Amino acid sequence: MGERLDDDARLCASLPPAGDGATHVAGRAPCFSPPRRRRGSEERARIVEIARSWLGTPYLHQASVKGQGADCLGLVRGVWRELYGAEPEIAPPYTPDWNERRHARGEEPLLDAARRNLRAVLRPRAGDVLVFRIVAAGPAKHCGILTEEGRFIHAYAGRCVLESWLSRWWRDRLAGAFAFPILKDSA
């Protein structure tokens, strides 16, 4: 396991800074303008392209600034902003254990937000958001974006935004898969 972590750290250090470093001020999203309609495969390729533009962004809890810092939710939020211009809702402040406390009360904040703002899919495809449970009986608390069969982009503590294999470990912890609303070609 230690070698894998070292490989991830080397990968993060070797990647050039992502994007232009533009900032997003929480609570002050730009005006929403409906996305230009594209065919599904072009939309999916665009989502993957945007997600890959975040590669190398350092991990920073609660952040969502390409090239500066992002956590797993910040990555998905940043891709949403590049697609739509405005986030569908403002993410509340959260601690690393926020889902555990709410899960104990029967709540699933990350899955609930995905259900409100994305569209559930049965067979995830490139460009879809994947939501994971790190512990089988625990809350869903990690997410990423599928880039191709068997690979996804995500950010997690101590690393950066990187593309990983969707190994059996991750597949066994998949809690849900969701498409961005502009994607009309999957179910």
Condensed summary:
The protein contains 6 helices and 8 strands; from the N terminus they run ααββαααβββββαβ. With 187 residues, the protein is of the alpha+beta class.
Outline the structure in words.
By secondary structure, this protein is of the alpha+beta class. The chain has one domain (2-19, 39-88, 95-179): endopeptidase fold (from Nostoc punctiforme) (Alpha-Beta Complex). Helices cover 31% and strands 19% of the residues. It is built from six helices and eight strands. The protein has helices at residues 2-14, 40-52, 72-84, 98-103, 109-117, 168-171; strands at residues 64-65, 69-70, 119-120, 129-133, 140-148, 151-155, 161-165, 174-179. The strands form two sheets. A six-stranded antiparallel β-sheet has the order 3-8-4-5-6-7. A two-stranded antiparallel sheet has the order 1-2. A hairpin with a 3-residue loop joins strand 1 and strand 2. The protein is globular, with a radius of gyration of 16 Å. The N and C termini lie far apart (36 Å). The relative contact order is 0.19. Mean pLDDT is 80; it is low at 1-11 and 15-38.
What is the strand tally? 8
Order of helices and strands: HHEEHHHEEEEEHE
The unreliable regions are 1-11, 15-38
Number of H/I helices: 6
Largest sheet: 6 strands, antiparallel
Give the helix/strand class.
alpha+beta
The overall pLDDT, averaged over residues, is: 80
Fold-level CATH name: endopeptidase fold (from Nostoc punctiforme)
Number of separate structural domains: 1
Helix share, percent: 25-40%
Strand content: 15-25%
CATH-level-4 superfamily name: endopeptidase domain like (from Nostoc punctiforme)
CATH class term = Alpha Beta
CATH architecture: Alpha-Beta Complex
Distance between the termini: 36 Å
List the strand order in the largest sheet: 3-8-4-5-6-7
Supply Rg. Answer: 16 Å
- The outline comes out as globular
